[in-house]
Amino acid sequence: MSLYVKEIRGNVNTEITSEFASNLGTIIGNFLRTEKVAVVGRDNNTPSQMIKRSITSGIMAAGINVFDCGISPIPAVFYLRDLYDAGVVVTVTASHLHPEDITIKIFSEHKIPLVHKNPERVSWDKIGQLSYVHDYIDKYKNAVINNVNQQIIRNRYPKVILDCAKGLTTPVTPDILSDLECEMILTGCQPVDPFSRYAEPSPETLSLISNLVRAVGADMGIALDNDRDRVVFIDEKGNIIRDQTILGIFAKDALMDNPHGNIVSSVVASIALEETVTKYGGKLIKTPVDLILNGLEENNAIFGGDEPGMYVFPQIHNCFDAIFAAAKMLEIICKNDSHLSALAEDLPEYPRTVFSIECEHDEKEKIIDSIKEIYENEGILDYQDGIRVDWKDSFVLVRPSRFEPLIRVYVEAKTPKKLQIIHKNLNNLIKEI
């Protein structure tokens, strides 16, 4: 079975209105079989509540039954997909960048074309039913706990600094880590007011966690985002560990238990990740940035993930899950009787730079095509998502941003000198175009 993810972002009440959300819900419902159900959930943001209700009404208007999770982290909402054999899961959350923006995520088992202009509504006597789900949080918590080695974590009694990003009223992650007998210092665990901005993980906003880790001698710092599908890990020295290195740690662990397994990441994947997966007997499969979850299901992968801080563990479900990632990382350091810094140092890590270039949406294709022509006779080419060129000791990826008028550029090389040369040449090339 395939899994597709569609994200819609926009300003509440101007770009994303209640009318827009209701029509969107009906379009979603039109592409579900009547025996299928929809699962919906949201964060604690007031605009999210309004938009989720409108989407729910629209789905019901298409004759589809809806299970409403209320306020819940994205992984817990998604966990109901298998429990209820849902044809679609919809989550609504506030943007961590702009308080006036909202993100609608649609997880479906087949592609839903959202350009359909005339959604079809059923007659009054065939409207879908709405049910509220209350016990799913406990089911999700139990699934997380039961899919890690509980005893090995409890025996070590790790100390953790946990930042909850003020995203939820329900303390799901603290409850799970408490059950695993972790010693915790919590920060950011009170919800923000409806008009505040959520913290964007960055060296500046993470400095408090780094300082706390060092001050109290914690084993790890864990920084979640507001909807719990992204996580940043900080080692016992207070250092933020690269996403690509964390991917390597998780991939290595998965391959130790499942030799020759498939690992899925996007075209953003580092050379170091590919080397790590190959070293431990696995195969790295690269997908477009928005098709990682689909790639996991189609390739029966044992682990997957992408930047920034998004990790998928099919043993529990095929969803980016920061909460399970936190518990799994604790299991890894405990069973290896090691520090996170040592696990990171054991893997290769190469110089890497990422930058953006302003580019209007209607110009992106022309720019990408021009770059393709220049690189068409060089290295190993990948056209899945923009253009990626791989050489023996380096790679370049140029891809259009899905939401912003930007082109993203990734450069990685095994030496700082090679990185500098490629970066300079690419900058000049793009300026000429």
Account of the protein in words:
It is a single chain. The chain is of the alpha/beta class and 433 residues long. The protein folds into 3 domains: 4-134, Alpha-D-Glucose-1,6-Bisphosphate, subunit A, domain 3 (Alpha-D-Glucose-1,6-Bisphosphate, Chain A, domain 3); 139-345, Alpha-D-Glucose-1,6-Bisphosphate, subunit A, domain 3 (Alpha-D-Glucose-1,6-Bisphosphate, Chain A, domain 3, 3-Layer(aba) Sandwich), CATH 3.40.120.10; 352-432, Alpha-D-phosphohexomutase, C-terminal domain (TATA-Binding Protein, 2-Layer Sandwich), CATH 3.30.310. The protein is 36% helix and 25% strand. The protein contains 14 helices and 20 strands. It has a 6-stranded mixed beta sheet with strand order 1-5-4-2-3-6, with helices on both faces. The radius of gyration is 22 Å and the shape is globular. The two termini are 42 Å apart. The model has no long low-confidence stretch (mean pLDDT 90).
SSE diagram, text form:
Elements: E1 4-11, H1 18-30, E2 37-42, H2 46-61, E3 65-71, H3 74-83, E4 88-94, E5 101-108, E6 130-132, H4 136-146, H5 150-156, E7 159-163, H6 172-179, E8 183-187, H7 207-216, E9 220-224, E10 231-234, H8 243-257, E11 262-266, H9 271-279, E12 283-287, H10 292-298, E13 303-306, E14 310-313, E15 317-320, H11 322-335, H12 340-345, E16 352-358, H13 361-375, E17 380-382, E18 387-390, E19 394-400, E20 406-413, H14 416-432
Parallel strand pairs: 2-3, 2-4, 3-6, 7-8, 7-9, 11-12, 11-13
Antiparallel strand pairs: 1-5, 4-5, 9-10, 13-14, 14-15, 16-20, 17-18, 18-19, 19-20
Helix pairs in contact: 1-2, 3-4, 4-6, 5-11, 8-9
